[in-house]
Structures are given as C-alpha cells and as structure tokens.
C-alpha cells in the first residue's frame, strides 16, 4: 500500500470511531404536556373532579399538583389535591382525573367560573420536567 493510502487508512481508522461516539448523544426528555378537560361539581359542592390529559416520556413518574379557588358571594371556596396524584407515563396521551375537596374552613363550590392552577412533574429519575397551567375554568354539574 502506498504511504499516502496508509496514512489515509490510519487516519480514518482513528477518527471515524470518534464521530460515532460524538454522534451518540443521549435522548432528550420531551417536555410533558397538561390539558384540562373539565371540572365537575361533586357531592353538592363538597369538591370538584378535575379531568385532565397528560403526555410524558414512557417510564417516567408523573405527579399532579392543583389548587382551585372560586368566589361564592363574599366568601371564597378553595381546594387542593390532598395528596399528589401519581401515575406512570406511557409515552402517549393519558386521560386522568383527581378529586379536589373543598376546604372545610371555606364554603362549598358551585357551578360557575373558578381559578385553577395546576402543574405536573414528569421525572425520569432525578431529572424532572414540568408543565403548568393557570386558567379560569367553568365548574359544571
């Protein structure tokens, strides 16, 4: 083999594996998504059922945090998810729901507008990704 060809062959033998190594980057976690489907009055206003749809990376642990407030006359109805709602992500959209009881120090919820703050965490190990929403929702029967 001529010297020039040997040099080229040796160069390629040493450099090509580096390109393969550099090209193998770890998968980046997709940002999770959260969409509120509905908020329904339950137990004569003792709480609401929050229906929502999430998507997150398959195998990740998902968790929901949510609070809702509503003006009822000159008082405030308030509730939050009593313990974080947990699920295992499938990599597809997942319809889920959570019950939010009204705070006993407040008043019962009623149909009408309310302010909802909700966020989810999707955690593949210690690296969590988040999605949140703050919106006016309509509580329905």
Description:
- 15% of the residues lie in helices and 52% in strands.
- Strands 1, 2, 3, 4, 5, 6, 7 and 8 form an eight-stranded mixed beta sheet that branches.
- The longest helix has 21 residues.
- It starts with a helix and ends with a strand.
Entry keywords:
mainly beta, 15% helix, 141 residues, eight-stranded mixed sheet
What is the subunit organization of this protein?
Answer: single chain
Look at the helices and sheets and give the structural class.
mainly beta
End-to-end separation in angstroms reads 84 Å
Largest sheet: 8 strands, mixed
Q: Which percent range fits the helix content?
A: 10-25%
DSSP helix count?
1
N-to-C order of helices and strands: HEEEEEEEE
Percentage of β-strand residues: over 45%
What's the alpha carbon Rg, rounded to whole Å?
25 Å
Number of strands: 8
Instruction: Name the average pLDDT.
Output: 86
List the helices and strands and how they pair.
Elements: H1 3-23, E1 33-42, E2 47-55, E3 61-72, E4 75-80, E5 85-88, E6 94-101, E7 112-123, E8 129-140
Parallel strand pairs: 1-8
Antiparallel strand pairs: 1-2, 2-6, 3-4, 3-5, 3-7, 7-8
Kindly summarize this structure in a few lines.
The chain is mainly beta and 141 residues long. The protein contains 1 helix and 8 strands. A hairpin with a 4-residue loop joins strand 1 and strand 2 (47-55).
């Amino acid at each position: 083999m001529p010297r020039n060809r040997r040099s080229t062959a040796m160069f390629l033998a040493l450099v090509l594996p580096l390109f393969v190594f550099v090209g193998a980057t770890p998968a980046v976690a997709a940002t999770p998504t959260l969409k509120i489907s509905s908020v329904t009055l339950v137990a004569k206003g003792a709480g609401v059922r929050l229906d929502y749809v999430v998507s997150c990376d398959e195998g990740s642990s998902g968790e929901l945090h949510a609070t809702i407030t509503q003006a009822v006359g000159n008082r405030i109805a308030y509730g939050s998810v009593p313990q974080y709602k947990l699920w295992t992500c499938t990599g597809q959209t997942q319809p889920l729901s959570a019950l939010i009881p009204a705070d006993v120090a407040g008043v019962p919820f009623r149909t009408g507008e309310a302010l909802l703050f909700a966020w989810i965490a999707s955690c593949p190990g210690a690296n969590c990704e988040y999605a949140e929403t703050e919106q006016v929702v309509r509580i329905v029967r």
